[in-house]
Structures are given as structure tokens and as C-alpha cells.
């Protein structure tokens, strides 16, 4: 097992996850984002990310959880920490963002005011991840607290349970993002398992792992280009296998990039605010008469990544804004907001 020292390969993957997330939301789903039509290379690229984007974010969260997992009898403090880190920004960033969509110019997604105000209960935007991962942290943390995840066998049983519920039909009402939690849980547990076996994985998969990821990426790109309907169902056996295999293969590459590590240090702020900056870029370039997809995508990605970095550095300077908008601790030194790893309180 690795120590609590920052893992450079995980920080690199965190930065990669940010890049994939922002790129996807800039391009957008069919009819959203830049409204890029079928047949475009950007549409193919966006569709091919479906099985990797959020599984990778969640895989990293599970991996990091295994480093800082709950110990002893501090479950209540653990939950308070998760509320601060995830639920407080949900109210002070997520709901205002959803309300802004109601009145904002050039918004593709139509959101009613009541839906926006109730988005803490029924998710309407990418903030569903906060609700979903909060449920996962509390659920897994409770099991850990009760001593039910002390062996590798129990972790594998938890993965089996998560895979089974993953394949069940979704709940009719997505209360507090429960469907998102069910979707993400297998990837979170995979991250936990990989942390426990990381040295063996890197040794045994150091050659085949990168090859597997390249093959998976090539197949996804091909299928997205030929028939996108074959890969849009995330909660499927294929979605489960491809998501888990991609995350494990990426970890086994032991990839390290200074640029991605730097970007990964701001991953939480990027997650929270990237859509705001990406949409602003699309609106501004549109008003300037820019129509070239390549320029629009590049501008959106650049703004979606660097805008939140700037905002994070501003918010981190003040206690109130760092708590409300970044979920940071009151006593924490003013440093860039680290990603979706949720530290203990």
C-alpha cells in the first residue's frame, strides 16, 4: 500500500479527467454545447468519452478515499467534512448556476425556475456528481466505520454488489442523485481496490495496460463514428467493463505530466465552474462572429480550464468564499483547491 504522500500519477490522471470533462461539455451532447452535428470529428470525440469521463473522476475519488479513509469512531466528523466539501458548494454554486440558466442569454439547456431552485434534490446539471459522490462517501464510510471493509475479499464483494445494482433499472425519481450514485459506485470501489494493489498492478500491467487503453480508445472512436447509439448507454455491461478497464489501464501506465499535475491541483474548482466559463467563451466568440468549430472548441476548453483556476485563487484568499464556493476548511491555508478528493475534517 502506498503512503499518504501525493501520488504524481494520480494527480496526472486527475488533470486528464479535468481535460476530458471540459472538452466534453464544450462540445456538448447532441443538440447541446456548440450543437455540433453528427459526422463531425468533435461529435465523434465527445461521444467516445462517455464510458471514461465520469468513471475516471470517480475512480480517482475511490483511490484517494483509500488513502484518507475513515478510521476509529469519527463517523460524524467524517460526514460533516463531506457536507462542507460537497453539499455547501452544491447550494452556493450549483443552485445559483441553475438559476442563471433560467435567465442567461445563449443557454442551450432550458431549465425552469422551480427545477433550478430544487436542483439540490433533483439534479439538473453536472452538479449531480456532488450529490452522487456524497451518497457514495457516506455509504462506503459507514461500512468502513463498522469494520465491514477490512479485507480484500470484502472489497471484492462490495464491487460485486455495486456491479449488480449498476445493472438494475434506474429509480423513477432521481432523488438527491441516487441514480448517479448507483452508476458511479463500481468505479469508486475499483479505485479502492486498485489502491490496495497498486504496486502489483503497475508491475503486472506496465506493458499491456497502455496497449489496452489505446485499443479501447480506438474501438470507442470507431464505434462513435459508425453508430453512436451503440455507446450512449452508460449503465450497461459494456459501460461497466470499459469504464473499469480504462481506469485500471490508465493507472498502470504510471503516466506523469507536469502540466496535468498542475491542472489536477485545481480539479475541484474546474469541475464546479468550467461550464460557466466555457459558456461565456461560446457566447463571446459567437458575438464576434466566430463560427469555426476548431476555434470555438479551443477557446471553450482554454477558458473552461483557466477561468476556474483564476477564480479558485481569488476565492481561496478569503475564508468565507473558500468555504462557500470551494468547500475548504476554515483553518486551511490558502492554497489551490484540490480536486475531488474530499479530505477529512
Automatic annotation (TrEMBL):
Topology in the lipid bilayer: Multi-pass membrane protein
Chain coiled-coil ranges: none
Single GO term (MF): O-acetyltransferase activity
Database matches in InterPro entries: Acyl_transf_3_dom
Descriptive protein name: Acyltransferase
Listed transmembrane segments: 12-30, 50-68, 88-107, 127-143, 155-172, 207-225, 260-283, 295-315
CC per GO annotation: plasma membrane
Main location per the UniProt record: membrane
Cell location: Cell membrane
Record organism: Pseudomonas mandelii
Keyword Cell membrane: yes
